[in-house]
Design goal:
The structure is a homodimer. Chain A contains 13 helices and 15 strands. In chain A, about 50% of the residues are buried. Chain A is of the alpha/beta class. Chain A has three domains: about 5-85, Winged helix-like DNA-binding domain superfamily/Winged helix DNA-binding domain (Arc Repressor Mutant, subunit A, Orthogonal Bundle); about 90-205 and about 385-400, Nucleotidyltransferase, domain 5, CATH 3.30.420; about 215-375, Nucleotidyltransferase, domain 5, CATH 3.30.420. Chain A is about 40% helix and about 20% strand. In chain A, helix 1 crosses helix 3, helix 6 (about 200-215) crosses helix 13 and helix 8 (about 280-285) packs antiparallel against helix 10. The first copy, chain A, binds a DNA duplex (30 and 30 nucleotides) through helix 1, helix 2 and helix 3.
Chain lengths: ~400, ~400
DNA sequence: ACGAATTAGTATGTGTTCTGAACTATATGG
DNA sequence: CCATATAGTTCAGAACACATACTAATTCGT
């Protein structure tokens, strides 16, 4: 039971100050903001001299570029604009039950290349899945590098519990993977990138994508709930992913919402997943065509909802009701006041939204204010963007790693 | 809606290194450990020269004292033992519904003086409560200073939501306090102490007391549940209190555990407090003597339990069952594997323990392992110790504040 | 009993990095 | 064209950890 959070025993050295200030200055340089050295000095409290020296080093890393003299029409010598260099990016990849997705995101947040392939990965041999993923990734990376992009790192998101340090998928029930070592593939996806390729949980990555490329502009603290075949989640607190002592935090799919309810695949009872997972909703809606894939049946569900099918509507509203219970519990425990719904919950937003809102009102009036419920618009790129974004953040947090 | 967690915009300065290392060295000095400078150098990675210089400054602060030459029988020059100086301490105080408690805790963790006064504070005028508390506190502080102790700071814990920055009790339903300004009293409790007197939530403080003076030696990550008239909670993650973006985290009393259940005073429905709070348990046990206080009726409950009264036993077991649901949800969301129960839950441990364990087994087998359920032994000193301990930790984390 | 070995702690010079003040560079406005 | 304002650089000085060399105090072996 590896647990993080030990007292930092690392001594502070004089050089740490520079590392911290490099990251601090970099955090003040945005994609298109054209900030000047003087702006940064004013914003950070560092002297102009220090900022100049720090910026010089950041330019060396390639993460930052000078945009030439700004002409803002004011008096005095104009400054030189600085911005993150869009020629640096990271690879993001996702293995999910229904599809594979790969993309390259640059430091401006632009998705530079992107591929999604439908697939039926439930029970498929990991090596076959990983081989297909590799092929997709190489096409994406080649397209991006051809346009002048250099990769800094990457990330792979999977729908399950992972050990990022060892590159192992501990368990992904909906893929039927257990203790699957993917560390070799991680290296081949983006070879020899300075910040490596890191394994992550799909819902956690999607939560981060929402932070950086979605509703994060408005929400700095929220619970992200990812509706896929299973129900995953990610907690964002203070604009950072809260992953818990062992990295398993946010598992909202197995919060108890119906104490008298059904057994769950996790061995427990009354879990959210047993009433709001795709299979549960489909069963309640009476869409039980065993022959077709879950994805195809979800399409049937949507058709039924649009046709006004009462059983389908009730099934989805029931899911919304139970989502509300889980959200209330999470909000109480972790002090949150916003939720972002992704995956099939985002697809079903017009039916599930009102049910969720009324559930929240019933179980904890005022806890989640007006506007505190949002739906993701990132669709199948969410996890991939989050995984790539995490790699970019690793670079932005430790630019000194790129210096001699 | 004040939220913490903004990007730290403070620049790193050369002096920060020293501040960090002072705290680091201090963190390696325990109450009775008799560590030497050489031990600290080995543990921290700092050089002996740096440790010597840092220790010299720590001695100046008065937080640390030299114990004279250690004689450990090994070869070589013996080192000089260092320990936290027990002549420094902090005041802790608690206002609860049934009682007032005050104490002084020194840097060795010893409760140097201590007073508990039964009181019926529900609906009592805040100024009367605070006046009685002040009198108790002055007696305690006088006793402690008479024995040569110097106060570094203090803390006051109340059963409700607080704004520590402004010294205001936002809402304490079981006291009937709302927006009560106690900042003036905070200053008079322990005047002119270097680290101030800070307001906190009772359950959060008790959770910290458990960490520092209770089960914290075994658990670094747990949910503390405080059973008082209401049900409060505190999350400890990585040996630190997790207080959430606005400071309201850990409110396990209002997690939804019985979706079809009763209305709660918070306006919601099915909250844990409606089935495991003292009034709820007493009602279910049929102990409804309206004339006597809650505390007196809790004593009757205990007598009934010891007599084997079936209704009483069932009532408590029912509370344990619902506690299990809340614990499972918390453990899933925040990735915890231990719980510590305090307040009336600790008093009722022999009846509530088995029910809780079996509830956990039913709703999430394996989530909370054998030994992951513990009961507090700090009784009415828990919150007071936590509040005092927090003040001591503030001093230990920022020893440079005591230097010129 | 006495020197060798071992460990604790101190003194001193060096390198890193921030700060502050002086300086250069480049614009606007009358 | 010069006063003024703002951007950015240069350089001396201070703080601090480090490496190395030193002194101090003890045990072990003979």
């Amino acid at each position: 039971m590896r647990e993080q959070g030990a007292a930092s025993t690392a001594p502070g050295r004089v050089g740490d100050v520079r590392r911290r200030n490099l990251a601090l200055v970099l955090a003040n340089i945005g994609p298109n903001t054209r900030v000047t050295r003087a702006d940064i000095a004013a914003a950070t409290g560092l002297t102009k001299a220090s900022v100049s020296s720090l910026v010089a080093e950041l330019l060396e890393t390639g993460l930052v570029e000078e945009l030439g003299v700004t002409r803002d029409g004011e008096r005095g010598r104009p400054g030189v604009g600085l911005a993150l260099d869009a020629r640096r990016g990271a690879l993001g990849a996702e293995i999910n039950v229904d599809y594979l997705a790969v993309g390259v995101v640059d430091l401006h947040g632009t998705l530079r290349s992107h591929e999604v392939a439908e697939a039926v990965n439930h029970g498929r041999r990991p090596e076959d899945v990983l081989a297909e993923l590799s092929a997709l990734a190489h096409r994406c990376v080649d397209a991006a590098t051809a346009s002048g992009l250099t990769l800094l790192g990457g990330g792979l998101a999977v729908p399950g519990l992972v050990d990022p340090a060892r590159g192992i998928v501990l368990t992904a029930p909906n893929l039927r993977w257990h203790d699957t070592d993917v560390s070799a593939v991680l290296e081949t996806l983006a070879p020899e990138v300075p910040f490596g390729v890191v394994l992550s949980n799909e819902a956690n990555s999607a939560a981060l994508a929402e932070l950086w490329y979605g509703h994060g502009a408005f929400f700095r603290n929220y619970l992200f709930i990812s509706g896929e075949v299973g129900v995953g989640g990610g907690l964002v607190i203070g604009s950072e992913l809260f992953s818990g002592p062992r990295g398993y935090a946010g598992e909202v799919g197995h919060v108890v919402v119906e104490p008298g309810g059904r057994r769950c695949s996790c061995g427990g009872r009354g879990c959210l997943e047993t009433v709001a997972g795709q299979e549960a909703i489909l069963a309640a809606a009476g869409i039980t065509d065993g022959g077709s894939t879950t994805a195809a049946r979800m399409a049937s569900l949507q058709a039924a909802l649009e046709a006004g099918d009462a059983q389908a509507v009730t099934a989805v509203e029931r899911a919304g009701h139970y989502l509300g219970i889980a959200v209330v519990s999470a909000a109480r425990l972790v002090d949150l006041s916003a939720v972002v719904l992704g995956g099939h919950f985002a697809v079903l937003r017009q039916w599930i939204g009102p049910a969720l809102t009324s559930s929240l009102d019933g179980f904890a009036p005022g806890l989640v204010p007006e506007g505190g419920v949002a739906f993701s618009e990132l669709e199948t790129t969410a996890a991939l963007r989050g995984a790539a974004g995490a790699a970019l953040r690793r670079a932005l947090a430790a630019p000194y790693e790129l210096l001699g």
